[in-house]
Every structure is written in structure tokens, then in C-alpha cells.
Amino acid sequence: MYQLLISFILSLAAVSTAAPVQNETRVDSAWDIIVIGAGPAGIIVAERMSKAGKKTLLLEGGGPSYWITGGRQKPAWLDNQQLSRVDVPGLYKSIFADQGNLTCAEHANAFTGCTLGGSSAINAGLFFEPPRSDFDTYFPKGWKHKDVSAAIDRVYDTVPSDDVYSQDDKFYVQSGYVAAKKWLVDGAGYANVDINKEADNKSKVFGRPIFDYVNGQRGGPVRTYLQDAIKRKNFQLQMNTRVERIIRNGDTATGVSAIVNGTAKVIKLASGGRVISSGGALQSPALLWFSGIGDPALRANLTAGGKLDGVSDWINNAEVGNGLFDNPNTFIELSNPSIQSYVHNYSNPIPADALAYTQHRSGPYSFASETSAFWDTLKVDNHTIGFQGTIDSSGFADWTSNNTITLNVYGTSGLFSSGKVELNDQYLPGPDNNVYYSDSRDGDAIATFIHSIFAKLDPKVLTPLNIPLNSTQTQIRDYITSSTAYTRGEVNHWSSSCRIGKCVDANTVVKGTKNIHVVDASIVAPLTVNPQFGVMIAAEHASDLILKLGKY
Ligand SMILES: Cc1cc2nc3c(=O)[nH]c(=O)nc-3n(C[C@H](O)[C@H](O)[C@H](O)COP(=O)(O)OP(=O)(O)OC[C@H]3O[C@@H](n4cnc5c(N)ncnc54)[C@H](O)[C@@H]3O)c2cc1C
User: According to the UniProt entry, where is the signal peptide (predicted)?
Assistant: First the structure.
């Protein structure tokens, strides 16, 4: 009865203004499945486990984010609205100026979300299906496109997405889109496509971005999968609960040790149960290390820092943390008198724009700021290297005049460089120095791409400001691989740090263990597109595999 009452209250929270109620005492029972981390992957895998009847506990270190989860941080212009800052797409970029309590500053040496929804609660919402070649080329047996296609369908069925984000069906802030289309479609021969309808084509394509918003508000797994899960009495979400380590008896997890409301607590697995780490590509490797699983070379340092207190043995798995990826990026500032930049303002939006959003979920605040995106590829030493450009509605750093927009160019799949997760002196996980351009072929390839699109750029359409249009390929390479405000920035698309077939097996079981899984961006290979869609596919597919395994 009590459980029914709790799930009733939780389901009310999904549709009304109430914050979700958490029953602290329930962490005392034993669980079939304990999922650590409520990012997109953790939410999806926990939803799938609970749907299959498993008694499932989802533990999130952070607190509420969206209004429906109890998130209440917001600017005054949203007073009287059932919206937190997280819900409003146009407030996306404010996270870089004021992180509130939404990011992992205390838990990771990099920018990433530590709140309900993980980084999907603070990201731009760009939602691009990876091309089939990503699965067929970069994923092992059991994870090819034919294997994951049912998972792709389920993500599409569950997570709404659209390129027409404004609820009045109009597009806003379009001068950058018009100029980019003139440059790339009319000038450089790019095909103008519906990006997700032609997901497999990533050669010379241009289009409007797709976002996973729901009715003009942030969407994603918190608004979809999680709302289904919290209606089930065999599912419990526990926020503000940070897992310190997985408790093992040799190769078998028996529970987790977590800080629940400031107190260390052991949460037990039921017999035959499984622990699934979904802490993201930086924090899942760290959690495995703190649980005594990883490269034995790390053990002395972890012991010295007290990180292995209570851990009596070590499981060798040198692939934990290996292969960390993020897109090497360059911001290119572009200007033209025809451009009208648009800067979303957290506290003082243009009154008409605030009204359009609060009354109709329309106008510039109904999207994060990206007006177009494009892709191309290049063959280098038998690798097909992918490139993506995303065009934003305003300038950046030294170039913020009203006629400036920013093109963010990334290298994507097929790059040669590969990094590692490393712990800093505070034992916080972050990227090592090899993530970007540690193989010089990457800088050359991205410079070739930028040089090729510059060759098609009529300065009457757009003029690049921080890289001269007539730069040689070598000059471009030297610039993009140097450290400036515009180059080598972290894109925060952390992935690939616990790869399938190396760190985990094809069923996502951590090698050397029986019932510990990693299901999050760590197991996703570098993709041709922004990662969240691929992370959701991986979580859906991993759920099928874990359910097939049954009890360990
Ligand atoms: C600023 C920004 C913008 C982005 N924009 C886009 C975009 O537009 N499109 C796109 O496709 N991708 C984007 N991304 C990337 C995308 O959001 C991530 O790839 C995705 O969220 C990764 O999902 P995940 O489930 O692996 O982990 P995460 O989203 O990192 O979630 C992990 C969760 O686990 C929790 N956790 C970790 N360790 C523990 C622990 N020990 N105990 C309890 N909880 C724990 C964390 O608090 C966090 O909530 C962006 C990312 C950032 C940071």
C-alpha cells in the first residue's frame, strides 16, 4: 500500500508541480538491478529493467533538474511558470556562465552534467541519428546496425524530436541559416537534407538541426522514459545519492556503498542481481577504479589516496578508461552585414521574445541557438574521417558584433587520436593530453576540410574573422592545433572510455567480473554525430542483452 502511495505521488509529480518524493527507507531492501547514474543511458536501462519486472533502483548523485523533477532554479521572467532553467531550450548557453548545482565540478575534472538527466539536462538537445556505417565500422559483432536497428526504432518511438522547434511552426534567427545555405548548398554543392531522414548520408549534406524537445521544452529521457518508470512500484529513483564504490566478493558485485543524505550506506543486490554503472564516460571508469577494477599500475596511487579503503583485492582490466574521445573543435567566427546575431539572455530577454516563449513556447527561446549543421568525410590512410559543422546564432570571445555568427567545426568518427581518462591530484576523473590531435593526421585532415570549404566561400556571403579566408592548409592546421579561445576547446562529448570487446564484453559485462556492467557513453565508439542519440541506442540495445542474460 505504502509503495502504491509512493508511486502514485511520483506519477503526480510527472504531470503536476510537485517534486518527486523519495522514500529513503527503500534503499534498505535488496535490488535485482542497481543502476548508478541517471543520465540518458542510466534512465533508459533502468526503465527497461523495471519494465521487465526487475526490482530496480536508480541512484543519481545530483539533484532535480527539470521542473517536473523538482528543479526550481530559474530567472525571474519565468516566475509563475512551471519551468526551471533546464526546461527552456534558449537558456542552454547560460550553463557555461552559471552552472548552479547542475554540473559535476566536485566530481569530474571536465564539464559535464551531474543532475537528474546527466548532461542531457544541460545539453543543446541536438539529436542526430548516427549513420549505419558508425555501427558497421566501429562497433563489434552483436552491435552492428542490423543488431541495433530495433533499439533505434524504440528510441524514435519514445523520444520525440523535430526540426521545427517553435510551437508556432516558424523559424527564428535565420540570417545565419540563409548565409550558410548560400555558401554550402548553392556554392559548395552540399545537398540540403532532412538530417535524420537521411541519417546514413554524411557526405556533403546540410540541413536544419533536429532537437529532442517536447512541445517547445527540453525533452529527452527525463521527460519520456523516466516518466514511464516512476509509475511502476518495482522502480525507485533516489537522487542526491552518490555511489562511492561497488562492493564485490571477488568477481561478483554484492551491492554498492553510497552516500545517502550525507550518510554512508550499503545498498544490497538481491541474489543473482546486477550492478550497472551509467555514470558517464569520465565517472564510470573512476567508479570502477575506486571499486578495485582497472589497470594494476593505478593501484598504489589509489591506495595512497585512501580510495581503496575497504577494497581487499584488485581485478586487472587495463582497458578501463582507455580510448576516451571528445571532438577536437575549432570555432570560426563569420561575419556579414546581412547577419543579425542573436544572444539569448538569461535574466533580461527581449520582452516580446520572453512573452512568445512563456505564452506560446515560440520564438528564439524555443531553441538552443544552432541554426544549421553540415557534414562531410575524407579518406586518410584507409580511414574515413568525418567532419561536422554546426552554426550558432552569435559571435564568440573577441568577435561579438551584431553581424557575427560562430561555426563550430569538429572532427568526428574515424580520427586517429585516442586519449585516456586520468585522475587529477584530487582524484577527479578528466581527459589526459592525448584526446585531441595526439596523432598529427587529425590536424591535417580537419585543416584539409576547413581549407576545402573556405575555397567555396564567397566573402560577399560570409567573411571568416579569426582565420583569414586565404590561409594555406598548413596555416589552418597550425592554428587549429594551437591553444586559443577558439581552438582545442572541450566539446564535452565524452565517450569511448570503456569499449565493447575490450573493457566490457559484448553483453556490457566488465571484463573480470560476473555481474558488473557499464552502460553509458563509455561503451559508445566515436560517432559521426553528436553523441546523445547513439548513447540512447546503446542503452536500449544493452538492455535487451542484459535481460537475455537473466540472473548471473
Ligand atoms: C554542455 C553540453 C552540451 C552537449 N550538447 C549535446 C547535444 O546537443 N547533443 C548531443 O547529442 N550531445 C550533447 N552533449 C553530450 C551528451 O549530453 C552526452 O553524450 C550524454 O549525456 C552522455 O550520457 P551518459 O548517460 O553516458 O552520461 P551523463 O549524461 O554524463 O550522465 C551520468 C550521470 O551519472 C551521475 N553519476 C556519475 N557518477 C555517479 C556516482 N558515482 N553516483 C551517482 N551518480 C553518478 C552523474 O551525476 C550524471 O547525472 C552535450 C554535453 C554537454 C556537457
Answer: 1-18
531: annotated binding-site residue?
A: yes
CATH, residue 464? 3.30.410.10
**Cβ-based neighbours of 486, under 8 Å, separated by 6 or more:** 330, 331, 332, 333, 396, 397, 466
pLDDT tens figures, 457-513: 999 999 999 999 999 999 999 999 999 999 998 899 999 999 999 999 999 999 999
Q: State which ligand 1 atom lies nearest to the alpha carbon of 532.
A: 11
Does the annotation list 243 as a binding residue? yes
Residues 399, 409, single domain; the answer is yes
Does residue 212 lie within any of the structural domains?
Answer: no
| Number of Cβ within a 10 Å radius of residue 189 | 10
Pair 152, 189 in one domain: no
| pLDDT confidence tier of residue 551, bands split at 50, 70 and 90 | confident
524 lines ligand 1 (CB under 6 A): no
Convert the pLDDT of each residue in 62-117 to its tens digit: 999 999 999 999 999 999 999 999 999 999 999 999 999 999 999 999 999 999 99
Rounded to the nearest angstrom, the distance between the alpha carbon of 280 and the centre of ligand 1 is 6
Please tell me if the CB atom of residue 61 comes closer than 6 angstroms to any atom of ligand 1: yes
Per DSSP, what are the bridge partners of residue 404?
Answer: 335
Pairing of strands 263-277, 516-518: parallel
**315 bridge partner residues:** 293
**Distance between CA atoms of 286 and 161, rounded to whole angstroms?**
33
What spacing in Å lies between the alpha carbon of 116 and ligand 1's midpoint? Answer: 10
Residues 53 and 194 in one domain: no
Q: Please report the DSSP string for 138-176 in residue order.
A: HS-TT-SHHHHHHHHHHHHHHS--BS--STTS---S-HH
- Among the listed residues 162, 159, 234, the one whose alpha carbon sits nearest the alpha carbon of residue 197: 162
- 514 and 428 within one domain: yes
Structural domain of residue 474, as residue ranges?
172-207+329-416+438-480
Q: Do 392 and 501 reside in the same domain of the chain?
A: no
Q: Is 283 in the pocket of ligand 1 (CB under 6 A)?
A: yes
Could you tell me if residue 315 is inside a domain? yes
Pocket test for ligand 1, best of 123, 126, 367, 428 (most atoms within 8 A of CB): 123
User: Is 93 a domain residue?
Assistant: no
Does one domain contain both 129 and 69?
A: yes
pLDDT tens digit sequence for 505-540: 999 999 999 999 999 999 999 999 999 999 999 999
Cα angle 487, 488, 493 (rounded to 5 degrees) comes to: 120
Q: Are residues 202 and 238 in the same domain?
A: no
Task: Give the number of domains in the chain.
Answer: 2
Cβ of 279 less than 6 Å from ligand 1: yes
Contact present, 120 and 220 (Cβ < 8 Å)? yes
ipTM: 1.00
